[in-house]
Amino acid sequence: MRTSRVASILTAFCIYSASYALMMHSIRKDGQRDMRESRPYRSELRAESRLSTVRRCVEAAAELFVAQGYAPTTIDAIADRAGVARRTVFSAAGGKVALLKLAYDWSLVGDDEPVAMSERPEIRAIAATRSPRQAITMWAQHVTVVSHRSTSMMLVMQAAADTDANAAALYERAMRDARLGARMFVEHLTTIGTLRPGLDLDRATDLVWALLDPGVYDRMVRRGEWNDAEFASWLAAAFAQGLLSAVPRRASTAPRSTGDPAGSALETLTAAEAGGPRTMI
How far is 178 from 281, CA to CA, in rounded Å? Predict the structure, then answer.
C-alpha cells in the first residue's frame, strides 16, 4: 500500500514537472513573459495602458460597424477613429472579426470585465427566486436591458455573416449561446414551477429562444413605438402564457443547501459554459 502511494506521488510529480516544462517553453518561445521581472508596478501600468488601447479600438470599431456596416469598415478607419496606428489595432485587439467579437461580447454584459454572465448579480438574483412568475418577470427585464445594449451589434454580426466566413462562425456561436441561455432559464423554471401541459423542455427552450431574437426588440422598440418598460412587460406576459401551467407549483419555503444536486441550472452554470465568460443571456 505504501509502494502504491509512493508511485502515485511520483506520477503526480512527473505530470507537474512536464506541465511546468511546457509552460516555461511556451513563455520563452513567445517572449511574452520574463521570469526575471522584478518590478510588478511597471507590468500593471503596461497592462492598464494596453487595456485602454483595446477599449479605444473596440469602441471605434463598434461605432463604425453600426454606422456603415461591417464589410465597408476598414482597419485604417478604425485606427483613425481610435487615434492609434494601424499596426496597434492588430497588436492590441486583432483583426476585424476579433473586434466584432469583443464589441458584441461587451455589449452583452455592459463592460469588459472577465466575469461570466452567470456570475452577474442579475442572474444570481433570478436563480435565487423560488417564484416562477417572479423569475419570469426578472428574466424579461434582464433580456430587455441586454437587448437595449446588444441589438445593434447583433444585427451587425448577422449581416456580416452573409459575406464573411469568420463572422458567420461567430454568429452561429452567438446563436448557440443564446439557446443555451434560454435552456438554462427553462430548466430553472422546471425546478421551481410546472411547465404547461404538453410542453417539453426542448419546445419550451425554442419558445424562449425565439423571443430572444434581436429582431423582435428592433422592430418593437428601436423601429416601433414601444419603450423598454412596455417591452419588458409584454415579454414577461408572453413567457408566462407560453411556459407556465395554469396552476403553478407552490414554491418551497424550506431552505435548500448549496450542495443540493437538484438545484437550479442557473445556479450551477459557471464561466466554463459555452466557451467562457460571454454566454449571451
Answer: 6
